[in-house]
Amino acid sequence: MNFHQLHIFNVVAKHRSYSKAAAELYLSQPTVSVHLQKLEQDLGMELFEQLGRNIYLTDAGRMLFGYTQKIFTLAEEAERALEELQGLHKGRIRLGAGTTAGIYYLPDLLGQFKEDYPGIELVLDVANSSEIEKKVLANQLDIGVIGCLSTEPDLVSEPFRRDRLLMILSPQHPLLKKDEISLEDIARQRFILREPGSSTRRAIEDAFSRRGIHLQVAMEYASTDGIKYAVAANLGVSIVSELAVRLCEQTGLVAVRELPELEITRPFSLIYHKDKHLSPLSQTFVKAIKDYASQEAPTDD
Prior knowledge:
By secondary structure, the chain is α/β, with parallel strands linked by helices.
């Protein structure tokens, strides 16, 4: 058993495919198969079984895969840490962000960070907060930024700013004729919300549930921009981050209203795996996010 064989095994186990592993490793498929057969011979046990056209890990394979994931995660961390000894001139951060933070908050910060550290590669993955948590847990991302406090026991969750949610309506909506929108008014509306797994949706549903209000969900979108256009077409109303509607009212796309009886805020949080050693580069990035948030104009909680 050698490091090269373990690397090939790890990639095949990750993809559950010889062909995909061969493509990633720039090897021929027969070469991959030969290395795996030699590894199985050295260990004296089978690591894969083939059923039809699909391959599956055996019990021994699953156990070994757990170890090889740790081995190659540490190898990647060691490589990045050594690169960063050059004074943060080189390196790579795998960053994940919930949709609101990734689209409406982080771009300015990332631009500033790239100006300060032009040799650093930033890889940003934008998805809903639940997906970002899963990817951080699986070590597919170094750091995540989500719109809630994570309850995952294996994640460290550090809130760094508050985000306020506001109601948006079509400019033709009859509620705009009222001086103040009440909870009773809201309860009668058809809502357009983000998909389950979105921290924005979770914050909205929690706030309504605490007041005993059942939301009438008319449509779901995986995109806040999609929600804004659906609201503009008077297909329903919604509640979104104030970050997402900074320009909307100026352009006349939608009307924005605060809800005095239903003030909804949620935290933006940094997350990373509790067992992960944050490299000097990652620590610098975390500090940059916190410093950026502290320099913002204070928002209402």
